[in-house]
Specification:
The chain has a five-stranded antiparallel sheet. It is an alpha+beta fold and about 130 residues long. Helix 1 (about 5-15) packs across helix 5. About 50% of the residues lie in helices and about 25% in strands. The longest helix has 19 residues, at about 110-125. The protein has a single domain (about 5-130), classed as Alpha-Beta Complex (DNA Primase, Chain A), CATH 3.90.580. It has helices at about 5-15, 20-30, 75-85, 85-95, 110-125; strands spanning about 35-45, 45-60, 65, 70-75, 130.
Amino acid sequence: MDYEDEAAVLVETIIENTEDIYEYITNQIGGFYKKTFYTKKEEHNGKEITTKHFISVSSFVGLYKCEVCREKNSIIGWHMKYFETSFSCAVQSINQYFDLGLLRGLSKKEVKKIMKYAEKYHTSTFVEYE
């Protein structure tokens, strides 16, 4: 099994099959058409502050852009940031939410290897800061 190829297929399948990223995000946090915001407690210079993230969502390309921090990312990146989870947890949650059926029939060892490569692929392909 070529884990790098499997990892790329995994990430691309999630992006292609979650075109309605807006639906997923608004179902998680609530919002309104094509733009939404959420507040989050974050640590900044050793102090806990509440930040507001105003995001534009493009279901056409399966990406979102935060108008505050200027980050562009995929549904996987949004899930990781909002829920403070690992890449693997985000992929598994999205896989379950959209009933994509990915990673079925694979051993834990195979899944772990694929996730390692998938995270690298995702970061190099979808994460962008302006």
